[in-house]
Amino acid sequence: MAGPIPREFIDDLLDRADIAEIIGERVKLTRAGREYKGLCPFHQEKTPSFTVSPAKGFFHCFGCGAHGSALSFLMQHDRLDFPAAVEALADRYGLEVPRTGPSRPSGKGLYELLQDASRHYIEQLKSHSAAKEYLQGRGLTGAIARDFALGYSPKGNSLLARFGQTEEDRRRLVDAGLAIRNDSGDLYDRFRDRIMFPIRDRRGRVASFGGRAMGEAQPKYMNGPETPVFHKGRELYGLYEMPRGKVPQCLLVEGYMDVIGLAQHGVAGAVAPLGTAVTPRQLTRLFGIAPSVVFCFDGDAAGRRAAERAMERTLPEMRAGRELGFAFLPEGEDPDSFVQSKGAAAFREIIEQAAPMSEFMMATLSQKCDMATIEGRDRMAERARPLIAKTPVGVYRDLLFARLAQEVGLEEERLRQLLQAAPERRRTARPVPAQSAASGPFDTLGESLAGLILNFPELASASEPLPELDYFPESRVALFKDLFEHARAMPTANAAKLLERYRDLKEHGLIARLLARNSGLNPQQAERELSGGIERLAKENALRQMAARTPD
Question: Is-contact 221 211, C-beta < 8 A?
């Protein structure tokens, strides 16, 4: 496609969007002052904790932590990626999404080509008895093969012969990930003599394929490459085939055949990552479908190691309203083989016994630690430090501290002080002026000011530039300055537009958390807080510079 969507278009789209109207079409909302409240669509609750602020263009759930702009809501609720959410919102207002930037492979027509390829593979499966016998030998029925649109890519270059008649056709096959060139420059079918698994997005469009060798060819499984319409970290195999609406639980399994085997035996909600580790975006999509996600691993040593890696990756995504568990099958079994030999009831029993994240974490930490000794408990606490640091500040993190304190036999508050003390803070340092009282519920003065700009962006337009902050050595002051300058540059700045500017940046999560905090100030109070905070920053900056020039 052409380049990225212009920032000005996204800002204009958010200006047009009535977030209360958009969300109100999907969630029953009632007015509460200047905001709206309702039952959160992203987790089950009886008392409304989901709020929508038309003035900010922002929604937030105080129960599960879901938050964002109208685009974020469409992504989470309708399970769209960002470009698709922009397109959906643009269609609502009769706008065409423009593109800018350097030329890249175009996605135009690739979905149609991929769909044609899927039909071709299905036709080939019907005419190749060896492929049909392979699937039958794996215990699959014709109905499940139809539901998942399974196919077969024969030996040779059948796809290239059928769809690669012109140079433009062949280029599109390469762009779609269906054809590849060898070292000599010759073009050939990427998938040959393989069972084909179409990977469909939430709209049902074929975005790519996975191929499984029937013989001893390596690799056993082959996934399509990244393309203009396929990003491995966004999609999950089986997500489209999952029953619509809320499901009680999502299962993360390893392979395509695991997803299909479970579905055939009536176990709904199973999906598989596409040859990569599960990503935060994929987890967010799953938690938007169900409040509970369970990883299912083989019970051997490799499965345990994979579970530990998954735990480390997913701790940053844990927050109120989310449940994540770890289930282990008997050694030598995978979900497909187990459900075929033991049945769905036996498989569900193992899933019901899944260890919650906290229990699995404690069991993992205590491994190779003699908990009967002081040294062993100390080692466990040290192993916990980097893991708990990954967890977002909140109720879940506090409960982890309490659980760890029980394990190591320390008072919770003392353990918290020891683990949260960074090594550099233990060294003698030059005294730093105390934080301003303006920081209120925030962690630093810079963070407090960033929160003020997010909640009251109109204050920035009335302020002068702040070049002195370029020299203030604190990352969150730099974030405040960045937000301040963005807000000054936007005549109609609001919280949603500021948030969207950081969507693909590491600061996005912090900004969303700051925005979700309600300062409780009116505009006049916020203006005084901002003015006083900036003055305090200037004084602290001057003190730091004086200290730097003073010899020891």
Answer: yes
